[in-house]
Design brief:
heterodimer, A: 660 residues, mainly alpha, Cytochrome C Oxidase, Chain A, three-stranded antiparallel β-sheet, two-stranded antiparallel sheet, 19 helices, globular, B: 200 residues, Four Helix Bundle (Hemerythrin (Met), subunit A), 77% helix, elongated, disordered N terminus
């Protein structure tokens, strides 16, 4: 791939070739295309690859924040009757640990892969709506800021720069402290303060970001595949993106409405969840888990997609049972909507409901098991190469299965009644979340980072990352099974000695530091990869799917010429397949159309910051909070209006014809 | 919008324009929004049948009128989509003005209804009925208002001959999908929230 590129500006000024003259948008502002300023270039970018990298960087940052919160929790629990932190601080930490890890670390890490890979895997130039994609990213940033705003206030207070007095006297405990699922009635304004409001508005904004991103991916995958990329030729990762995006657009509305109802309860005095006015707190649990259970699959299906890409590449065999793996993913997603009440077995649903939800939950084990057998089938008889991505993918299969086993135990309602709210549950979902999702994401990072930045990993640090994370996670979470069965409840700030919990807790804490050290080494390894001098080349792993056919890092236009695909593992077939399976090229002599960059997604989504903060502070009676919210709304609407009027713009690129 | 032409060189596997597909997905998602709101209302109605008797408050005549108006606005919306497909900008603009006008009448009825109900003592804090009723119908009202805002901006945009059938028909059709959906949701709300109270 050469860089020999001529750029023709907008077709309406066809006379003016080669000059990179900034073009005026329909509202008369200069479009920020071809900016020499790095900041302007990244802030206004609509390139799915840059957006993906920004998602990934921010998500890794929040992974560290969430991990730090977990470490403080574990340190507090290391010995009985510890008083390292107060009970209130402990509540804040476990609330923000859960919220951060789910909404600000894993979901955006998945989004980073969606963004970077999906257009490449289907042979598209970009996502269907590049500006909406940028909007999703910046709305995520705004939501993350609002959720974490309490920590900022707390820090300001610690330095004596802010105090809850005078006009802000109504603001007490500004860090959310009611658990990541915010059960009613503790979220009522009688019990919790401004932290809950930040949490409500922050999650609401993050929801907008996720839903708008999902619309984009669904349209992209359904409508923008290169010629020959039939649905049953899509890489499994793209399939899982499609399923997850569908889950997001159908599951998030439930939490959006539940949060809106909660916000109305707190700010405008409605009675959705307030017992005094006739509200039923159990309604929150139902609405929350109607979202919350599909959310579990929103987190884990992309991980399964990553593993389904990595295993065939390093076993040098096609994925065993492609169709059934895809179908199982769809079944898991579909059943995910029908099992929410298994989070509520102890609330007294009645025998019929409990039995039905119990059965459906057990049924989910079937498609999940099918996937595991297919991954094992992929390995069977393969020429396995133990590179870093493969090590983590194998770790995923093993560790995820452990989490799955304790999950099946929960599906039995009588057993679940014993395990509910104990450390057994913590052990279960951390095996799934770290042993499953995080290991798969690390595998994905090791697999695709050379493609993303064009540099190859160096050294053997990855082996240490693998050993430390897998060993660390097992030392941390395996004893929690015993702790749970010994009756240690979740969300306890401290505990007395004499229950037989001391040793297990100390071991868990030691394990958590080992795990944390492993994650730290991963970051060191990533930084080393960025500084590496070894070029990755187009295809460092001898891989199978379309993204490896283009240069590393891919050019802004992804493919110089749109490929015509004739096989499932398109690039593998192109390298080793028979002649009729090789790729073709679409003749694009008229050049490649690129969308223009724009400030509007950034401006519109940053309107969410005053909107969210203003709405949150209204409940505390902070003066001008309402006006701040209105200001935010005006910025949002104005941003969207200007976005519509400025038009998509665009320019044409003419990459060198000979290149691949 | 002359750059729109340049955008068309992307092909579509489904033969449906991206914008239209996006709107369909949004409507699917929106079904879940309204589904949550309406089911919250119905659950609380079932739990507390005696809490509040809306038949004393609801004016079926007024709401039937506003429902009819909204239905007719959908008819005009269909006419404007058809006009845009044929490139008859004048007819398109006439019909869109009609849609906006009818939408505003509907919103006016809702504002009057809300004011009247509050005056009669049904507020947001009146038990669960007030909470669910206002949040649900209010969310629908916001949808109508966004639709009106959208169509007004389209009306202004189409003034200087900016809109042409071959490139903007899909925009009008997308707005039309949204408008029809908001209309259908209202028919559901009118039935299960208003009419059903008068059956027993």
């Amino acid at each position: 791939m050469t860089t020999d590129t001529t750029i023709i500006s907008n077709p309406k000024q066809n006379t003016d070739i080669s000059e990179l003259k900034p073009e005026l948008s329909d509202i008369g502002l200069v479009r920020p295309d071809h900016s020499k300023n790095v900041f302007i270039d990244w802030l206004t970018t609509v390139d799915h690859k840059k957006i993906g990298l920004m998602y990934g960087t921010l998500a890794l940052f929040f992974l560290l924040v969430g991990g730090l919160e977990a470490l403080v929790i574990r340190t507090q629990l290391a010995v009985p009757e510890n008083d390292l932190i107060s009970a209130q601080r402990y509540n804040q930490l476990f609330t923000m640990h859960g919220t951060t890890m789910i909404f600000l670390a894993i979901m955006p890490l998945n989004a980073a892969f969606f963004n970077f890979l999906v257009p490449l895997q289907i042979g598209a130039r970009d996502v269907a709506f590049p500006r909406i994609n940028a909007f999703s990213l910046w709305a995520f940033v705004a939501g993350a800021l609002v959720v974490n705003f309490g920590w900022i206030l707390q820090a300001l207070e610690a330095f004596g720069l802010f105090s809850a007095s005078g006009p802000t006297a109504g603001m007490n405990d500004f860090v959310p402290a009611m658990g990541w699922f915010g059960y009613a009635p503790i979220t009522g304004k009688e019990f919790t303060g401004a932290g809950t409001d930040f949490w409500i508005m922050g999650l609401q904004i993050l929801g907008v970001a996720s839903i708008s991103a999902s619309f984009n991916f669904i349209v992209t995958i359904i409508n923008m595949r290169a010629p020959g990329v039939k649905m049953m030729r899509l890489p499994v990762f793209t399939w899982m993106t499609l399923i997850v995006s569908l889950l997001i657009i159908f599951a998030f509305p439930a939490i959006t409405i539940a949060l809106a109802q909660l916000m109305f309860d707190r700010v405008f005095g409605t009675n959705f969840f307030s017992v005094a006015g006739g509200g039923q707190p159990i309604l929150w649990q139902h609405l929350f888990w109607i979202f919350g259970h599909p959310e579990v699959y929103i987190l884990v299906l992309p991980a399964m997609g990553i593993v389904s890409e990595v295993l065939p590449t390093f076993a040098r065999k096609p994925l065993f049972g492609y169709a059934i793996v895809v179908f199982s993913g769809a079944v898991i997603g579909f059943l995910g909507f029908a099992v929410w009440s298994h989070h509520m077995f102890t609330t007294g649903l009645g025998k019929i409901a409990t039995a039905a939800f119990s059965l459906l939950t057990m049924a989910i084990a079937v498609p999940t098991g099918v996937k595991i057998f297919n991954w094992v089938g992929t390995l069977w008889g393969g020429k396995i190469r133990f590179h870093a991505p493969m090590i983590f993918a194998l770790g995923f299969v093993w560790m995820f299965m452990m989490g799955g086993f304790s999950g099946i135990m929960h599906s039995s309602a009588p057993a679940d009644a014993q395990q509910q709210d104990s450390y057994f549950v913590i052990a279960h979902f951390h095996y799934v979340a770290i042993g499953g999702i995080l290991l798969a994401i690390v595998s994905g990072i090791y697999y695709w980072l050379p493609k993303m930045i064009g540099r190859m990993w160096q050294g053997k640090l990855n082996i240490w990352v693998g050993i430390l994370t897998v060993v660390g996670l097992n030392i941390t979470f395996f004893p929690m099974h015993f702790l749970g069965l010994l009756g240690m409840p979740r969300r306890t700030h401290t505990y007395l000695s004499g229950f037989g919990w001391e040793t297990y807790n100390l071991v868990c804490t030691i394990g958590s530091y080992i795990l944390a050290f492993g994650v730290l080494l991963l970051l060191v390894d990533i930084i080393r990869c960025f500084r590496s001098k070894i070029p990755a080349g187009n295809d460092p792993w001898d891989a199978r799917t379309l993204e490896w056919a283009t240069s590393s890092p891919p050019k802004v236009y992804n493919f110089a010429q749109t490929p015509i695909v004739n096989a499932r593992d398109a690039f593998w077939a192109d390298k080793y397949g028979p002649l009729d399976r090789k790729m073709g090229m679409v003749d694009e002599s008229h050049g490649i159309h690129m969308p223009s960059q724009s400030w509007m997604p950034l401006i519109a989504s940053f309107g969410f910051i005053p909107l969210g903060l203003g709405m949150s502070l209204m409940q505390a009676g902070v003066p001008y909070a309402g006006y701040t919210a209105i200001l935010g709304l005006v910025i949002l609407v104005l941003g969207i209006a200007l976005w519509a009027i400025e038009g998509p713009g665009g320019y044409h690129l003419h990459p060198n014809k000979q290149s691949h | 919008m002359s750059q729109e032409v340049a955008h068309d060189d992307s092909h579509h596997n489904l033969m449906v324009k991206n914008k239209k597909l996006l709107m369909w997905l949004f409507l699917g998602s929106d079904c879940m929004f309204f589904g949550t709101l309406i089911s919250t209302h119905l659950i609380y109605r079932k739990l507390y049948p005696e809490e509040f008797d809306p038949t004393l408050l609801f004016s079926l005549e007024l709401t039937s009128f506003s429902t009819f108006i909204l239905l007719m606005s959908s008819f005009l919306m269909a006419l404007s989509v058809s006009a845009m497909h044929k490139g008859e900008i004048k007819s398109f603009r006439r019909n869109v003005i009609g849609v906006i006008f009818f939408g505003l009448i509907f919103l006016g009825c809702q504002v009057y209804e809300f004011a009247h109900f509050v005056h009669e003592g049904l507020t947001l804090s009146t038990g669960t009925f007030g909470s669910t009723f206002y949040l649900m119908t209010g969310t629908h009202g916001v949808h109508v208002a966004i639709g009106v805002f959208w169509l007004i901006s389209m009306l202004f945009y189409s003034k200087g001959g900016n809109m042409e059938a071959h490139k903007n028909a899909v925009d009008v059709e997308t707005a039309g999908l949204y408008w029809h959906f908001v209309d259908i949701v209202w028919i559901v709300i009118f039935t299960v929230v208003y009419l059903i109270e008068f059956i027993a």
